[in-house]
Every structure is written in structure tokens, then in C-alpha cells.
Specification:
Distance between the termini of chain B: 37 Å
Mean pLDDT of chain B: 96
Number of helices of chain B: 3
Low-confidence stretches of chain B: none
Number of domains of chain B: 1
Largest sheet of chain A: 6 strands, mixed
Strand order of the largest sheet of chain B: 1-4-2-3
Strand content of chain B: 25-35%
Structural class of chain B: alpha+beta
CATH architecture of chain B: 2-Layer Sandwich
Shape of chain B: globular
CATH topology of chain A: Mannitol-specific EII, Chain A
Oligomer: heterodimer
CATH class of chain A: Alpha Beta
Helix content of chain A: 40-55%
CATH superfamily of chain B: HPr-like
Number of strands of chain B: 4
Radius of gyration of chain B: 12 Å
Chain lengths: 153, 91
């Protein structure tokens, strides 16, 4: 699985407006719902918040990978958002979170979910690449950067 | 005294080394003076980094090879072994 298989150019939010974790999750979920058939934004927000209660998905290095499972979904869906200011997400290393990669998987898909998580983690592993993303750009710019890095993995 | 230990741990939990399990793994090592590398299927990850552990994408049944170095190696070995054997307290 490649990241670009699950992340279209339209699924990128170059400038998240929200300033709190819950609002960021809502902003990402609403965007995903607009671009994915059969996804209800409020239902998705509830699933994401339930998951966050089990432990933060802000894994450090400025990265959060909020995720959850939704019945009725056919394939893994994703949204990538950049926060210009950084958001306090109670991250594992205590730092602010700026790179948000939302992953939603169908029910009963532990295997696909794990593969998507692994690929996204590989994509974001390189610090120099993360810094290039953080410099920002248009949807098209960011998508191009992600495609190039994805192809090199 | 610094020791160097190695072990193999089999992932028993249904979800494998997913985000919450990886976070629990890293948290276990938080106060220990130790370096841990985790290898699986030719890939190697730093056992103190959730991002790194997630890159493995190791599912249920995977046998992880651990190299543990440092003054707290023995404690790290026993707590990690317990964590994995207890299915990360998930099921």
C-alpha cells in the first residue's frame, strides 16, 4: 500500500484553522466526510474522540495519527492537515503537534489498518521531509512532495 | 553494569504492533536507562520511538527480535516480556 493510494490531493488541508485537539479532529473529520461517500462527520468525530480517550495518538515529533474504524466504509480513507501554529494534543513527547494524518479503516480490517499506519509512519519518519512539509504550500505542492517521498520508500 | 540482552517476543494480541501497543511499549521504557532495537522481517526500529515502531507494521503472530543494551537491560527485558505476553492489556 502506498500513501498516495489512500490520500488524494483534495484530502490535504494545508492550513488547519483549529487551535484545540477536539476542533482539529472535527475539522479533519468534516473534510473527510465531504470527500468520502457514506461517512458521517459527527459519527467519525465520536469514534476519534473515543480512541483518544484510550491514549493520545499524538505520538511525538510533531505528529498525530488520529484513527478509528467505521462500519459501512469500503476502503481506508485519509486526510492530511498542517497546523501553522501547532496544537497541544498531550503528545507523548510533550511538544506541540503540527502534522495530522487522519486514518479511517473499515470494521474488521486490522491488517489493512496496520499496513496503512506503517506506510504513513515510514513517510513521516524522515525529519528533513517533515521540515519540508512544515514549510507549507498549496494542496498540489504538498501532494507532490508526498508522492515523491512515497515513491522513494 | 551495562548488559546486552537479546530475546524474541511473539505478538499475541489481535491488533499486532498498532499505535496503542507501540505507545505502551515505549512507555514501559520511559524511566529506564536502556537502548532497545526491535527487528522484524529485515526491518529494524528504535524501541523508544512510537513512530519507528509503527513503521514495522508487525501483525499478530509476528516474532520480534529485541536487542537490549544498558544498565537497566534486565528490567527492560522482564517488563517488555510481561507487556507482550499480557497482550498489551488489550484483550
Amino acid at each position: 500500500m502506498r500513501v498516495v493510494d489512500i490520500l488524494s490531493q483534495e484530502s490535504i488541508l494545508p492550513q488547519l484553522q483549529s487551535r484545540t485537539k477536539t476542533d482539529v479532529l472535527r475539522e479533519l473529520a468534516q473534510h473527510l466526510a465531504q470527500h468520502t461517500q457514506g461517512v458521517d462527520a459527527e459519527q467519525l468525530v465520536a469514534v476519534l474522540l473515543d480512541r483518544e480517550r484510550l491514549g493520545t495518538t499524538a505520538i511525538g515529533e510533531g505528529i498525530a495519527i488520529p484513527h478509528g474504524k467505521l462500519s459501512g466504509l469500503k476502503d481506508v480513507a485519509a486526510v492530511f492537515g498542517l497546523s501553522p501554529h501547532g496544537v497541544d494534543c498531550s503528545s507523548l513527547d510533550g511538544g506541540p503537534t503540527r502534522l495530522f494524518f487522519l486514518l479511517v479503516a473499515p470494521e474488521d480490517s486490522a491488517g489493512i489498518h496496520l499496513k496503512a499506519l506503517a506506510r504513513v509512519s515510514r513517510l513521516l519518519k524522515d525529519k528533513a521531509f517533515r521540515e519540508r512539509l512544515l514549510q507549507g504550500g498549496s494542496q498540489a505542492d504538498l501532494h507532490r512532495m508526498i508522492c515523491e517521498e512515497d515513491n522513494n520508500l | 553494569m551495562t548488559s546486552h540482552l537479546q530475546t524474541r517476543l511473539t505478538l499475541l494480541n489481535a491488533m499486532g504492533l498498532h499505535a496503542r501497543a507501540a505507545a505502551a511499549f515505549v512507555k514501559t521504557l520511559k524511566d529506564l536507562e536502556v537502548e532497545v532495537t526491535v527487528s522484524w522481517e529485515g526491518q529494524t526500529a528504535n524501541g523508544r520511538s512510537v513512530l519507528d515502531l509503527l513503521t514495522l507494521g508487525a501483525p499478530q503472530g509476528s516474532v520480534l527480535e529485541l536487542q537490549i543494551r544498558g544498565v537497566d537491560a534486565e528490567e527492560a527485558l522482564s517488563t517488555l516480556t510481561r507487556l507482550v505476553a499480557n497482550r498489551f492489556d488489550e484483550e
